[in-house]
Amino acid sequence: MEVKIGGTTLSLVIGDITQADTEAIVNAANPSLMGGGGVDGAIHSKGGPSILQECKKIRETLYPDGLPTGEAVITSGGNLKAKYVIHTVGPICDGFMTEKEKQLLSNAYRNSLTLAKIHNIKSISFPSISTGAYRCDKKEASKVALQTVIDFIKENPNWFKEIRFVLFTEDIYHVYKQSLEEILNVSD
Ligand code: APR
Q1: Is the pLDDT of residue 177 over 90?
Q2: Can you tell me the mean pLDDT for 158-180?
Q3: Using a 6 Å cutoff on CB, does residue 28 contact ligand 1?
Q4: How confident is the model at residue 187, as a pLDDT?
Q5: Could you tell me the distance, in angstroms and rounded to a whole number, from the CA of residue 6 to the centre of ligand 1?
Q6: pLDDT value at 185 more than 70
Q7: Which of 44, 45, 107, 168 has the lowest CB atom count within 10 Å?
Q8: 8 Å CB contact between 145 and 129
Q9: SS3 (DSSP) at 125
């Protein structure tokens, strides 16, 4: 599914984010930035050791105590098609999301987009942050994710050529597709 908002294409696809050919892809990281499972594990294993080396440097300099939830940092893409990886940390939920968790998840998307803009990046892929190991409710997380991205597009018209959500399964894809349709109907 894809929609045009001004000059920006917002697209939803089913796939593996490590294969995405956008300039940047976003990693659903943890505060250590030392890798993990899910998206994090896939990006580090497909992207190669150079990404971890850059993450270690970030930990030694910018974030000695770890990357706080909602913040974002950037590394190269290593062996990936993407030139850059933006690492961000979503909130850990216990199912349904509190207002604070929604705000932190929104910050993760917004700070990733802001960092992409600073680096003159025009196309970016997101996974469904915090809906795997971090157990946030998929439907609520999808609404926060999509609304944050749409708001950012409207505040930065024609900056991004494409913002893509790469969703790993049919199930999560349909959750995002339904949420996007609901948001767009409301905003018609
Ligand atoms: N491409 C796209 N989406 C993927 C991929 C992939 N290669 N692998 C997993 N996913 C999906 C999951 O199915 C889920 O819908 O990404 C979503 C986020 O899941 P996680 O990767 O578990 O991320 P998150 O819930 O944010 O948890 C982050 O998990 O891997 C660790 O180090 C990471 O501690 C951090 C935590």
Answers
A1: yes
A2: 98
A3: yes
A4: 55
A5: 30
A6: yes
A7: 45
A8: yes
A9: strand
* 74 in Cβ contact with 91 (< 8 Å): no
**How much is the average pLDDT of 23-32?**
98
177 φ/ψ angles, rounded to the nearest 5 degrees? -60, -45
* 40 has catalytic annotation: yes
For ligand 1, say whether the CB of 131 is within 6 Å of any of its atoms.
yes
Interacting residues of 5 by C-beta distance below 8 A, sequence separation 6+: 150, 153, 154
pLDDT value at residue 182: 97
Catalytic residue (choose from 40, 65, 94, 151): 40
Looking up residue 15, the CATH number of its domain turns out to be 3.40.220.10
- The mean pLDDT of 54-58, rounded to a whole number, is 98
Q: How far apart (Å, rounded) are the C-alpha atoms in residues 76 and 177? A: 30
Closest by CA to 13, choosing from 166, 170, 168, 180, is 166
Count how many domains the chain has.
Answer: 1
Given this model, what pLDDT does residue 95 score?
Answer: 86
Q: Which domain holds residue 65?
A: 2-184
Mutate to test the pocket of ligand 1, among 39, 69, 169 (most ligand atoms within 8 A of CB): 39
